[in-house]
Amino acid sequence: MEEVDRSRAFAKDVRRIVVKVGTAVVTGKGGRLALGRLGAICEQLAELNADGFEVILVSSGAVGLGRQRLRYRQLVNSSFADLQKPQMELDGKACAGVGQSSLMAYYEAMFDQLDVTVAQMLVTDSSFRDKDFRKQLSETVKSMMKMRVIPVFNENDAISTRRAPYKDATGIFWDNDSLSALLSLELNADLLILLSDVEGLYTGPPSDPNSKLIHTYIKEKHQEEITFGEKSKLGRGGMTAKVKAAVSAASGGVPVIITNGYAAENIAKVIKGLRVGTLFHKDAHLWAPVVDTSSRDMAVAARESSRKLQALSSEDRKKILLGIADALEANEKKIKAENDVDVAVAQDAGYEESLVARLVMKPGKISSLAASIRQLAEMEDPIGRVLKKTQVADGLILEKTSSPLGVLLIVFESRPDALVQIASLAIRSGNGLLLKGGKEARRSNAILHKVITDAIPETVGGKLIGLVTSREEIPDLLKLDDVIDLVIPRGSNKLVSQIKNSTKIPVLGHADGICHVYVDKSCKVDMAKRLVSDAKLDYPAACNAMETLLVHKDLEQNGVLNELIYALQSNGVTLYGGPRASTKLNIPETKSFHHEYSSKACTVEFVEDVHGAIDHIHQHGSSHTDCIVTEDNEVAEIFLRQVDSAAVFHNASTRFSDGFRFGLGAEVGISTSRIHARGPVGVEGLLTTRWIMRGKGQVVDGDNGVVYTHKDLPVLKRTEAVENGN
């Protein structure tokens, strides 16, 4: 379960970046420069330079380029007879000398087209043994970067004193990978990016289909697991050298990303904190477990912690919730910062407006969530409440009591505030919890999960609430019908349907929120405008927002319809019509009445009367929440009795269909199922029942041991029971 939030790697603002380009990235077929690929990298670096970043480039490829040029020169200067003889091996140092000037000429030409000045910086291992050299190097680079010059470093192999520069791994640095790590530490870089010809570090050779990309390298976990393939055929050390360099820089405090230099915009993606390549960081072991925790282990741990939670007193469980509310408010700035990053990334990625709207945690949201948790904490303890009490026989008392379900799996999309509501309800109801949020809310979910679990005392343990971070784990979790008791999906119709079709575990939820408002002919106009506007505009992306406006046919004639339409359109709502409304109102015809817009859009249609409205809702609705606006109480009662939805309202906005607004404290979701729980699901929807029997030695003995009375006894409130010693 390894998916670390990249934003943690960049605790401070990234300003100074070292980028190392490997030989396999620089060089194409036949040893020639890959000009297109190199040009794309130069463009990314030029953009960073223009945006105020300090860019330092370390480039390999000189030896390969020099070898290609010298081979050509050797061929041109050879006679036919010379070509028949064995060709002498080219001197590596000579290749380096020729290649360095050629490589730099290419960089100068490319960056000049981008209006960027570059400077060649050739260094050797022995130079770094001189303290004065190191000091001067730092001052020179600092001066260059003030003038927006990009230094281009390369090991000066042409004059290296090492006997075998391609094999000798001794000294301060031994190749351009280790040079880039050294420079990142010497020059106090904020980030090191190592560009390779593969996506990052794999558990085995990248060509092996069983190898998996490691997103975050944890030395204690991965150093014994990784099997390296062949080293680079073009450069010196391949991935082995890059890993050594990355570990060295990361241990010194510089975050490192190894990623694919072939992929366009990968450098920009790294800067944005997107999940590309492999991350190396000195604190990575604190973010992800050294030992993988299986899906089953998480579920079992949640169950064990839930039993510890149930063993606490009601007052202690209440204190946990109050502590979580306080912790959320104390960490509001951190939560908001992480949420802002999620929102920015989602917008840059081009996510739909409705999804981004659900992702945003608006000002005051944390305070609102904390208030709902405190309200939940003050509610009567739901665990162990006596629901029914029966005298089975003389001295034999049976009680039906409320009890936690066990372990819940909640899969939700977009809305990070859902995590807080669900977690608080799970704690109040004594359940263990596994949470899987959408990738678009990864940072928000991670910080909220940490704040909440840190507030849970060790006597219960943070494993009460597990955060599932990988989509690949969901199929495994859905198979665990022996340790997970209920699945609640909160998201799209597609998500809910997929989960229902993939598990034996009971599923509670709704697929769509096709909510209707029917405006009857006897409505009050101002009330109708207010309710319709609120139902659509208060939060258009919510599942309880109005998606279809049904209007009595008579309202077209008296001007009420025009006022309703104006109230919506003047606030930016796009209208689509059914067959009747689209023609009369001259608006586009909807493709389907069963459509959840989740945005500032809705469908309008005329109906004959309340019975027409009911028929329409039953045919096209989703049994979520539906409303009638009318002053005719008889019509209202027909609507309330006959509409078969989880929530049915008279003269009240559909937006009231919410656990907090119902006084449930919070909700894990809204259920349109007809079994177990329906409508907004609060604490009671997360409980089941069990039977407690107290006797005095009675036995059945073929039903001859007792005389059955089956007498109902009064159920005392919990306070009365305590006072009476029961």
TrEMBL record:
One of its GO terms (molecular function) is glutamate 5-kinase activity. Keywords: Amino-acid biosynthesis, ATP-binding, Kinase, Multifunctional enzyme, NADP, Nucleotide-binding, Oxidoreductase, Proline biosynthesis, Transferase. Residues 16-260 form the Aspartate/glutamate/uridylate kinase domain. Its EC number is 2.7.2.11, 1.2.1.41. Coiled coil: none annotated. One of its GO terms (cellular component) is cytoplasm. Pathway: Amino-acid biosynthesis; L-proline biosynthesis; L-glutamate 5-semialdehyde from L-glutamate: step 2/2; Amino-acid biosynthesis; L-proline biosynthesis; L-glutamate 5-semialdehyde from L-glutamate: step 1/2. Residues 298-567 form the Aldehyde dehydrogenase domain. One of its GO terms (biological process) is pollen development. InterPro entries: AceGlu_kinase-like_sf, Ald_DH/histidinol_DH, Ald_DH_C, Ald_DH_N, Aldehyde_DH_dom, Asp/Glu/Uridylate_kinase, G-glutamylP_reductase_CS, Glu/AcGlu_kinase. The keyword Nucleotide-binding applies. It comes from the Eukaryota. CDD domains: ALDH_F18-19_ProA-GPR. In the C-terminal section; belongs to the gamma-glutamyl phosphate reductase family. NCBIfam families: P5CS, PRK00197.1, proA, proB. P5CS plays a key role in proline biosynthesis, leading to osmoregulation in plants. This is Delta-1-pyrroline-5-carboxylate synthase. It comes from Microthlaspi erraticum.
